[in-house]
Amino acid sequence: MKPKIWLSSPHMSGNEQTYIKEAFDTNWVAPLGPNVNGFEKDLESYLKEDRHVAALASGTSALHLSLILLGVTNGDEVICQSKTFSASANPIVYQGATPVFIDSEAETWNICPTQLEIAIKDRISKGKKPKAVIAVHLYGMPYKVEEVNDVAKKYEIPVIEDSAESLGSHYRNQKCGTFGDISILSFNGNKIITTSGGGAMVTRSEDHKKQAVFLATQARDNAPHYQHSQIGYNYRMSNIVAGIGRGQMSILDSHVEKRRSNHELYFNSFKNIDQITFLSEPEGHFSNRWLSCILLDSLETREGLRLALEKENIESRPLWKPMHQQPIFRNSPNYLNGVSDELFDRGLCLPSGSNLSKEELDRVISAINMYFAVC
Ligand SMILES: *Cc1c(COP(=O)(O)O)cnc(C)c1O
């Protein structure tokens, strides 16, 4: 068997262990310390726009705290892009609220501004104004930021920007992770940079950051004993994990370049195969190309190709299964136009890591060429 080629695997810079060693040497082995502060500073200088960053245990916990900061509670409704990873939607349920799922548009595969407005009007007419909108830059492709923000602003509904897959992407030269009223990042093992597991909240005010850190560290009141007037969480990032993050920040831009060059190589290699199409960047959109995705002409071709790659020990995966198709969310309201169903049937993510060698990419490309040569 040839060695496995993964979809997206961790890619260290070599600097990470310096920060971890420093943490051990100074005994900062805790969910606070110089690496946590340093990683937050690094992210703030990277994102610009005077944002504040709170380093947390995961992207999911960042989303959960965002909903809490926006006052989402039992019985509320929160709008969420349907085509996404379940972690975008689950925290809505943690709060006892109901997710309302919105379909995608075909140009970025993200939340459709037209369906969004239809949904908001309909929910308001039913007496339930949504408390927030969760929009996602899927696979690193920025959503239609202006259109989505315009609709949300018109109805005065805050936007939570799920930027878990899009660190390093930008829209009209402003970095993804700075467009929401609150934004979140993820540093899970398969993301563009990783801390093994981790996430962050990006806020517009110092006060929001302070509240997030307060809730993430068990909501301790200011007293010598342990006193609580609010329910707290254990959601802060550890100082060891943050050390990995500091090392990873030094190679973020080069990882983006490499992932974009993977995408370009696939594009050039398959442009003569009629059954394969790609998602191109609309004007003003710059994607980190976290995962390189292709659309096939049918579900049969997509599944045939996936199995052919699997035989070659090459990992590939269908695009995210929309939340409105998930058994757990079958009773949630949704506003659909068919786009995300079709993307799920016909889309496939190809190996996309920043650590893929020329030989590995060649293996993927020849396996795909072979599949279309014989079928
Ligand atoms: C990975 C991911 C998350 C969750 O981040 P974790 O750090 O794994 O909790 C949320 N939303 C999207 C779109 C993701 O891809």
From TrEMBL:
GO molecular function, one term: transaminase activity
Keywords carried by this UniProt record: Aminotransferase, Pyridoxal phosphate, Transferase
Pfam families: DegT_DnrJ_EryC1
Cited CDD domains: AHBA_syn (cd00616)
Source superkingdom: Bacteria
InterPro entries (UniProt xref): DegT/StrS_aminotransferase, PyrdxlP-dep_Trfase, PyrdxlP-dep_Trfase_major, PyrdxlP-dep_Trfase_small
Family per similarity comment: Belongs to the DegT/DnrJ/EryC1 family.
Designated name of the protein: Aminotransferase class I/II-fold pyridoxal phosphate-dependent enzyme
Taxonomic source organism: Winogradskyella aquimaris
